[in-house]
C-alpha cells in the first residue's frame, strides 16, 4: 500500500540531444510554418525515483501530458516566461494520480541542435522561394517596380528566422511533480522555487538534490482535516487537506474559470452538470 508521501515522482522532460530534432506528429505538424513555429518531440529525460510499486510510472502518458505541445524553440527576441499547468492520469481501475508541470526555456548549448535548426531554415527558405517565385515573364516587371508580392511575403516569412551567428537559441524544458493528491498551490510553489534556484546567480543553501529528496521521501501527506507546513528552497510551503465530512479537496483558483470562460458559460456549465448532461470542453 502507498505510504502516504506528498509526491511520488520528480520528472524532467525536454530535448534529447542524442535523438535530435524529431517532428511531433501528434501536434498536427505544419511544414509550411517556419522551423521556430514548429513543434518537436519531447522526451522524459530523468525521473526520481525510477519506479514506486504503488504508482507505476507511465512514461508515455507523463511525457505527453507534461509537454502537450511538444518542444518549442525561441530566440532572444521572443518572450520566454515560465508557464504552469496541471493534469490527471486516470487508470483503468478508476484511480487517479496528479501531475503539476512548470515549463520554462533554457539556452541550447548543443552545436548540433543549433546547426540542425539553421539547416531547417535554409531548407524552409529555399522551398518557400521556389513556391512563391514569380513567373519567368514577370521577373522584369517585378525588378523594375523594386518589389513584388512574392518578395515581400518572403521577407515577412524570414523576419521570424534564426541565424546561428547572430541569435541565441532557447528550447522549452519541463520539471514536474507526480502526486497522489491534488495540492496544486503547494506543488506550484515547490516547482517555482526549484526553477528560481536553477536560474539564480547565487546557489541555494543546499544542493538541489537535497530539496528533491526531501519532497519525495521526507514530506508526508497531511492527515485528513489537518494542515502541513514544510520547507521549500526559499521559504515555507503550506497545504491543507479537508476532513472526511468536508467538501473534497479542490485547490484550484475558481477565479481563473470565470476569466477563461465568462460568467454566462460558467452558469451554463453548472446547469448542465446539475442536469447530468455530457460536457465536452475543447481547447488548444
From TrEMBL:
InterPro entries: cDENN_dom, DEN5A/B, DENN_C, Tripartite_DENN, uDENN_dom. Residues 24-284 form the UDENN domain. Keywords: Guanine-nucleotide releasing factor. SMART domains: DENN, uDENN. It comes from the Eukaryota. GO terms for molecular function: guanyl-nucleotide exchange factor activity; small GTPase binding. The keyword Cell cycle does not apply. One of its GO terms (cellular component) is cytosol. GO terms for biological process: retrograde transport, endosome to Golgi. This is DEN5A protein. It comes from Calcarius ornatus. The lineage of its organism: Eukaryota, Metazoa, Chordata, Craniata, Vertebrata.
